[in-house]
Every structure is written in C-alpha cells, then in structure tokens.
Amino acid sequence: MSLPPGFLEELKTRVSLAEIAGRKVIWDNRKSNQAKGDMWAPCPFHQEKTASFHVDDRKGFYYCFGCHAKGDLLAFVQETDNIGFMEAVEMLAGVAGMPMPAPDPKAREKAEARTKLADVTEAALTYYRLQLKTAAAAEARAYLDRRGLSAETIDRFEIGFASPAQQGAFKALTDKGLPADAVIASGVASKPDDGGAPYDAFRNRIMFPIRNPRGVVIGFGGRAMDPNARAKYLNTRETPLFDKGRALYNHGPAREAAGKGQTLIVAEGYMDVIALVEAGFEASVAPLGTAITPDQLALLWQIADEPVIALDGDTAGLRAAMRLIDLALPLLKPGKSLRFALMPPGQDPDDLIRAGGPAAMAKIIDGAQPMIDLLWRRETEGRTFDSPERRAALDAALGRAISVITDSNLRHHYDRELKDRRWQFFRNTSRPNRRAAPEVAPRPETAGSPLVAGSAGDLRAPLILAILAHHPGLIDRFETDLDKLEPGQPDLARLARHLLGTAARDRAALHAELERENLLETLEKLMALGHVRLQRWIPAEDASETARACLAEEFAKLAARRGIDHELAEGLEDLGDTDAPAHLSWRINHAVQTRLRAERAGVERDSETAPDLDRERELFLRVIKNAGKKENRH
Q1: 221 and 249 Cβ atoms separated by less than 8 Å
Q2: Where are the alpha helices (DSSP H) in 337-407?
Q3: By Cβ atoms counted within 10 A, which residue in 149, 154, 303, 401 is the most buried?
Q4: 234: three-class secondary structure by DSSP
Q5: Sign of CA dihedral 455, 457, 460, 462
Q6: 524 in helix, strand or coil?
C-alpha cells in the first residue's frame, strides 16, 4: 500500500520518539534533559546497566553508543516490536489519532466492515469466558485442570467455553444490539441453507481465541467435549477477518518474544503452545489444525530466520516433517530455513514438559536438526546402496529434491553438502562384507618400508587438483574420476570436495570461492610442490587441451595403482597373521619400494619408462601370489 505525500512527516510530527521509546526503557533522569528532548537510558537492544542509549527527540533519531543501533521513530517500533513497516505505520497512526489513508471508497467500506466483525468477535470472547464459569462448563473446567492449566493460565490465554445451547452465543450477542448479519458474518453463528433460524457455530467446546498480530480477535478454535463429535478441533470458518491458512495461534506475543532473542518454536496445537509458553518458551506458535501453509511459512520467516518445528517423534511426526521439507525447499532463501526438533516417540511438547520440565524441552530445542539432515535421512534411511543402479537412484532423488530451490547460490550449497555426505557415506559403506586384514606388528626387516610407514607417495592427487583448480571447465568431464580420488590429507580432501560441488566453471569465479572457503592457500601450497611446479603450463589460460590429456593420463595411472593396491590388500589378507619367512617379507618390501620409486620417477611417464613400470608391476603381483602359495604350504 502506498502512502500519500506528507503522511509520514505528519505522523512523525504528531508522535514523540521519546514517548514511544519511554514505553520500552527507563530514562536516566540524571543524564536526561527532558526540556531539550535529550534523553538517555539503558539500551533496549542489548543487555547493559549503563545509560548508553540516546534519543534526540527534536530531531527524531536514536543512537546507542554501546551496540550502535540507530534509526528514527518507525525503525524503533519495527525493531522493538518485531513488526513490518506498514504495521508500524498503522500502530503509530493509532497513537496519533490519524486514520490510515484508504486508497478507494471500497477499501474504506471493507475496513469498516472488518471493524464491525471485530466488535462481534471481541464480544463473543467475553461471552465464552463468562460461560466457562457456569455449571454447564464443569466438565470443561475439569479437563483444563487435568491438563494442568491454572486459573492464571486460563486468564492469560483467555480460554472460554461454548455452551451446548443451540443459540447461546447468537442470542447473547444480538440481545446486546449487535446485528444478526454481523454475528453470522463473523463466523460465531451460521445460517442454514434452507433459511431456518441461525445457530451457534461452536457448541459444547472449550474455546481458544485467535488474535492477529495487532491483537484483534479474528476467530476461534474449539475443542469438543463430546468424544463422538465429528471434529475434535473446529476452527472458525473463513470470514473477511479469518483465514486459517494465513494465521498463527499466539502470533503477536510470540513475535514480541522472538524480537527479544527467544527461539521461535512451531508446535502442532493450542495446548502445546500454552505448555511451551508457561514453561518459559514464549516465542511459540501453532498452525490452526492443518499442515503449515506457504503463507504461514512466510509469516514465520517474518518473525525469525530459522523457526524450530517441534514435532512428535513418531511416524506421523516424521511424515509431517517430510511434507514440510517439500513445501519449504522451493521457498528457501539465503538465511531463511527451518530446523526440526523431534520429540521422543509418543510425546508432544506438553507431555515432555510435564515429564522432564523446561530443561528437557530446552535440550530438544538446542539439538534441533537442520533441514538438510532430515532430507538426507528421508532418502537414505532403511535403504541399501550396494549397486551402481541404487546409488544412481539416490543421486537422482537428491537432485530432484534440491532442483526446486530457486536461489542458485543456495542450491549450489545444498548440492555441495549432499555430495560431501554422499562421498563420506559411500566411502564408509563401499565394502560392507569385506573381512578386514588382521593387524600385525611390523618385522624389523620391514619396519622402514613405505608400506609400513604409510608413505604411499600420494603425488598424483596434488597434481590433479592443481590442474582442475586452474582449468575448472574440465571438472564435468572428470567428475566421476574426481569422486574416487580420496586424497589422504584433510586439506586436499576439502579442496577435492569443493571442486566436486562447485558450479563455477570460470577460473576467476572458482578462485574467489576458494578464497572465501580458505582453500586458496591450499592451492598455493600445491603449486609450490616440486613435481607440480615443473608443470609450468598449468596456470596458462590456453593449456586446456594439455590439461585434459594430462588429467586423463593421471587418472588412468591412479586406476592402475588401485588395482595393484587391491592385489596387495588381498595378498596381505591371505597371509593373515602367519609368521612369514624373512626373505618373503623382504621380497614384498622390495616390490613395494620398487613400485613407489617407479611412481615417483614416473610423474612424466613416457614410452621409455613404460616397459620398466610394467615389469615392476608384474614382479609385484608375482610376489603377492607367491606369498599366498608360501602361506598355503605352511
């Protein structure tokens, strides 16, 4: 809605910043000079004991010398009440006695009609609260008592009761002079299609008023006392005031509490919210009997960047979480997400607080999981990925799930995180049935070998990563090989995972990413390694064809090396814990050392060295096979 010229200036002229701020702070009379509009107080935006918050009422600005918060009248209301710009304007206009400008006559008529309906709902609330004290509400009061609600809590949440009478509320409100058509339009009463007499929409129910963020009663939720009722919970039908998909229970108080730093918690129902608030979790809300809608999600993100969704830990709760993930993924934006706090099976927040107190609930909230955890759990839990087809199906499912994220940067980060999890997951489960080789202490004659020392000469990984970091256009071509690289050093592993996950195919963009991720120094160290530094062509912009050929060769060498490593592992596993003869240990050690020397010298492999490497590989495999035969004879 646009405001006419001069409206805001007139509003700021009529409303004093010191008056509005004085509702939130206690002025320091020793430092303040009210006559000059020079006011000081402890800051409402951060915890402090000294008066560092300054208001210049004549200029209409505030500034905190502690936390550096600053702004004008509207900014102060928005920040302290955690509301939007237009809501702040409407609130201040009410203080100033200024009517909000109506864009056209119809809008004014609608606003007046909504005001009349609000008068009806407010009167209905008064009626329901009085009814809770009558004899007809004895069972309802007993129920609230069993749920542990004190008289103070009932008053705080304005809980009432709708009597079983057919026209109890309708007659009470019309007797007060409220128009019958307004009572019906408000949703308090209904009129049958056959033209019969109006009847109460809520009968024999505990009533929970639903207020909008500005405190207006827009509708009700009613809990049936009759176990045979068609609906356990019933909401006001849709009216000009009420749309259950665009409202939240306890919206206003929760927004104010969240604005003071409390975690926004989204529970499933009215009683859960009441239990949470009474336990000290005042920033708690609930959707109105349905799954969270896109409009409600937008409302939640207006209140807090990462609302915590508190759901039952049973199957139904998990299903609700998964549905919400599908709803939220297309709507995600940088900084706007959800976390999930799953209750113990069979318990809701009310049950948990009763059993373990606020500390038990705080522990669950503090351990809330990010949304990507549940997404990964949904696609992997209870499934086996023992074939390429099943792994490919997982890739496809994860790809489909995150493809709906509209923000490209956020989608990129999801893709990187999921690839990282996939890499770790398959690395840990790639050989689930393989018998581990027995651990034996190294013999004296083999203790100094590269095999025992663990220095397998990981020379290829730095070279490969250096090439791809300078020629990112080749990442797609070699993605499968890169996924199998598994560098031994943590910093190289981080760089490899980043290259796998990045969407950058331009060198400058990739290096900017590496700098943000503190990986540029890792690349510089790679480029300083002797065997990498010798490849002077790597940084050249026009060396992509050379880079492609070199990568193909290096990955081929790695594949051959993995074959040899596999043979070695099989051979050592066959040896078991046998006390092998010294000459056999020497031959194994010699073969390994020979292979490693050949690899170190073979970074630039050519036709002259190829036969020597082949002979060394043949010798190495023969030693392993002979080791098995020796072991069998023993």
Answers
A1: yes
A2: 349-366, 371-380, 388-403
A3: 303
A4: strand
A5: positive
A6: helix
Give helix 315-328 / helix 294-303 axis angle, nearest 10°.
80
CA 87 – CA 100 distance, rounded (Å): 11
How does pLDDT run across 187-227, given as a tens digit for each residue?
999 999 887 899 999 999 999 999 998 889 999 999 999 99
* Contact (Cβ atoms closer than 8 angstroms) between residue 258 and residue 307: no
pLDDT of residue 446: 42
**pLDDT of the residue at 211:** 94
d(CA 372, CA 402) in angstroms, rounded, equals 10
Strand order in the sheet with 61-64: 38-41, 53-56, 61-64, 70-72
Specify the residue for token string 């009613």. 222
Phi, psi of 58 (to 5 degrees): -70, -40
Q: Which of 188, 294, 299, 175 is nearest to 234 (CA)?
A: 188
Q: Minimal CA–CA distance to 502: which of 538, 531, 476, 533?
A: 476
SS3 376: helix
- Reported in sequence order, the residue ranges of 65-127 that DSSP labels E, i.e. its strands, are 70-72
pLDDT tens sequence across 432-485: 444 444 444 444 444 433 333 333 336 788 999 999 999 999 998 888 888 888
For 30-72, list the strands marked E by DSSP: 38-41, 53-56, 61-64, 70-72
Domains delineated in the chain: 7-96 (3.90.580.10), 105-242 (3.90.980.10), 243-430 (3.40.1360.10), 450-633 (no CATH)
Give me the pLDDT at residue 283, please. Answer: 95
Task: Specify which residues 161 forms β-bridges with.
Answer: 206
Give rounded-to-5 percent helix, strand, coil for the chain.
55, 10, 35
pLDDT at 609: 41
For 607, the token pair is: 């036709």
How many angstroms separate the CA atoms of 12 and 4, rounded? 14
Given a contact cutoff of 8 angstroms between Cβ atoms, the answer to whether 630 and 584 are in contact is: yes
Counting as low any pLDDT under 70, the low residues of the chain are 1-2, 5, 102-105, 107-108, 428-458, 562-634
CA 474 from chain center: how many Å? 33
Which of 265, 267, 270, 297 is CA-nearest to residue 283?
265
Token output for 406: 């509209």
Q: Residue 236 gets which letter from DSSP? A: P
pLDDT value at residue 256: 86
Residue with tokens 């046998």: 578
Who contacts 230 (Cβ-Cβ below 8 Å, separation ≥6)? none
Q: What is the DSSP string of 527-547?
A: HHSHHHHT-TTTT-TT-HHHH
Q: Tell me 336's DSSP state.
A: B
HSE-CB at 623 with a 13 A cutoff on CA atoms is 24
Residues sharing a CB contact under 8 Å with residue 91, sequence separation 6 or more, in sequence order: 77, 81, 83, 214
- Residue 465, judged by CB atoms within 10 A of its CB (0-12, 13-18, 19+), counts as buried
Who's near 268: CB < 8 A, 6+ residues apart? 286, 287, 310, 311, 312, 348
What span, in angstroms and rounded, lies between the C-alpha atoms of 51 and 21?
14
| Cα-to-chain-centroid distance, residue 326 | 13
